[in-house]
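Hi there,

I know you've been waiting on this one. I reran it after we fixed the sequence typo, so this is the corrected version. Both the input and the resulting structure follow.
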Amino acid sequence: MVKVVLDTNIWISAIFFGGELAVILEGWKKEQFLTVISQETFLELENKLMYWGKKLGSEKEAAGYVLSINRHALFFYPQRKLKICRDPKDNKFLEIAYEAGAKYLISGDKDLLELNSIRRIKIISPSVFIERLKR
């Protein structure tokens, strides 16, 4: 199964704002790909899910996603620190993708997208990934 890293912004947009990104969330639920995550990226995601859940009155839904992601994502603990991205806070996504041997890192972040790829990991936008899911 294809291993994928989803940037936090993808999870938040897909869960709370839907639209085209809901296709990624549905693909994840249907196990079309395996999400890989690190403790660091999971904690960031958990904090942002609970923040948006509270703000939008969807705390129960947010908590459900936190539990589901915790259960179904494959956790890796990166040993190598990378300093590749212009924004140092984004390196954690590159680290997990590298450690897990992910095929894709999906992000809407321009600092990550401009890298295009690192080693064998393709850094692509959600729309490009959605097209690949539909094939």
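Quick highlight: The mean pLDDT is 92.

Best,
R. S.
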